[in-house]
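TASK: fixed-backbone design
INPUT:
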């Protein structure tokens, strides 16, 4: 977020907070997303070998996924 030239605003020229979190409802959305990710990873940990094989994930891959932080939602699969 940049200030316009000549304005009396004392806000910093660049905000380091992501846009979706900077809005008041952004924190709530992030929190609910983290809860959803945590629940999904817990369900993944409960799947048996047959179901993991059906979705193409090995037991070690599933275990590694469940150890990740809720805010770490980047893809690790090629």
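OUTPUT:
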């Amino acid at each position: 977020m940049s200030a316009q030239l000549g304005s009396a605003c004392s806000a910093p020229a660049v905000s380091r907070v992501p846009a979706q979190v900077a809005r008041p409802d952004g924190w709530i959305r992030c929190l609910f997303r983290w809860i959803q990710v945590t629940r999904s990873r817990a369900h993944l940990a409960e799947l048996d070998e047959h179901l993991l094989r059906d979705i193409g994930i090995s037991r070690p891959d599933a275990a590694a996924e469940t150890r990740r932080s809720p805010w770490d939602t980047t893809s690790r699969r090629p």
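COMMENT: The CA atoms of residues 37 and 73 lie 8 Å apart.
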